[in-house]
Design brief:
alpha/beta; 2 domains; binds pyridoxal-5'-phosphate; four-stranded mixed β-sheet; Aspartate Aminotransferase, domain 1; Aspartate Aminotransferase, domain 2
Length: 396
């Protein structure tokens, strides 16, 4: 048996005709820049993400960049984030001449550790240094501990840009004036950034992304920045870029968006199935594997019917024997991937700034020990059984 990490054909097949019709409509309209399909998608995604405005851009990377530009992040500014994420989280910071300040992750969720965040912010405040922005990442499809993050952001007056590239539709159990509200990823900071890269839960036919915000002035600035800072035509009061999303990307995403909640549910079902199969196989705990922790699951179950507390963009296990297991699964035809093998502070492109001398033990351990397994919605029980069998074969 061969089980791919992701099989986009299974998702495409039932939607193919509808997607073709949507693409044909854009093709025949000859309106290839901006236009009604893009606006429709911006409204739909903003509504889905609990924000007032959506600004379609060319990628998740550009979503982060445009948000930081609109907040005025520039040369020598400091921006807080974690070292255990995809490069794009810090790429925008560096391109603007600003510097990332890393905070280690929580080893259970792989998201920013609020305790360490508090310590870092206090230490910098004591030294008289301010942060221009903060980028918590909702890694693998589960929200960072935003209650704690937002409290610290407010205490120190730092705007929060959520890197929700892997978490569109995921919700966080916020406590608002003593009442629980499940708040969507991207709606909690001043801006939330999504990616429609094909492997994300809402994947396009190439690159695109979106920033959402409920701040009307910030939305206006981001719209202007994505068109070379131009407003009105040929008047440039700021320097932006060409960050637009094509309507040819928006059209198929509009077809897919209504299916997203069902796909999230299928991924959650698959994750739960892995959890029981791995437990039944006696692989959990001890020196073998650690399953992904869905930290809001228990609360979700207690409080109401299943909100999308985790959308499982990735199902990531942890084991000290990661490299051996990976080689074994490669041989056995089980798709897998290491997200991410090199923490950001150890990347060559920032070596000159001395980040390599810093230690972020949990990010470094995660980079050595984690492995993503197939969890896409159309995965069958038989395929999951095969994956678990192969993992068991490795450990015996
Ligand atoms: C995918 C991703 C991005 C970048 O999105 P692109 O659309 O590929 O540019 C940023 N941050 C994280 C955490 C991601 O997973």
């Amino acid at each position: 048996m061969h089980v791919p990490l992701l099989d986009l054909k299974a998702q495409l097949h039932p939607l193919r005709d509808e997607i073709l019709a949507a693409l044909t409509e854009v093709l025949d309209s000859t309106r290839y820049i901006m236009g009604p399909r893009l606006e429709e998608l911006e409204e739909a995604v903003a509504a889905y993400a609990g924000a007032r405005h959506g600004i379609g851009v060319a990628s998740g990377t550009d979503a982060l960049l445009v948000a930081l530009m609109a907040l005025g992040v520039g040369r020598d500014d400091l921006v807080l984030t974690t070292p255990y994420t995809f490069f794009a989280t810090m790429g925008g910071v560096l391109r603007l001449g600003a510097r990332p300040v890393f905070v280690d992750i929580d080893p259970v969720t792989y998201n920013i550790d609020p305790q360490r965040l508090a310590e870092t912010m206090a230490a910098y405040a004591k030294a008289g240094k301010r942060f221009k922005a903060m980028i918590p990442v909702h890694l693998y499809g589960q929200c960072a501990d935003m209650g704690a993050v937002l409290a610290l952001a407010e205490q120190y007056g730092v705007p929060v840009v959520e890197d929700a590239a892997q978490a569109i539709g995921a919700v966080y159990p916020a406590q608002v004036s003593g009442v629980r509200q499940w708040r969507p990823a991207g709606s909690m900071g001043v801006a939330g950034c999504f990616s429609f890269f094909p492997s994300k839960n809402l994947g396009g036919l190439g690159d695109s992304g979106m920033v959402v915000t409920s701040d009307t002035e910030l939305a206006r600035r981001m719209r202007q920045l994505r068109m070379h800072g131009m407003e009105p035509k040929y008047h440039h009061s700021m320097v932006g870029g060409n960050f637009r999303m094509d309507p040819l990307q928006a059209a198929p995403l509009l077809v897919k968006l209504p299916h997203l909640p069902a796909w999230h549910q299928a991924r959650r079902r698959n994750a739960a199935r892995y959890n029981s199969l791995f437990a039944a196989a006696g692989l959990v705990g001890g020196d073998r594997i650690t399953l992904p922790a869905a930290v809001y699951e228990e609360l979700a179950r207690r409080e109401r019917a299943e909100p999308d507390f985790h959308i499982y963009n990735q199902y990531v296990i942890r084991t000290r024997e990661r490299d051996g297991l990976k080689a074994f699964l490669d041989q056995a035809g089980v798709g897998n991937e290491i997200y991410y093998p090199i923490p950001l502070h150890q990347q060559e492109c920032i070596a000159e700034f001395g980040y390599g001398a810093l230690a972020f033990p949990e990010a470094e351990r995660a980079a050595r020990e984690t492995l993503a397994l197939p969890v896409y919605p159309e995965l069958t029980e038989e395929m999951q059984q095969y994956v678990v069998d192969r993992v068991r074969a490795y450990f015996s």
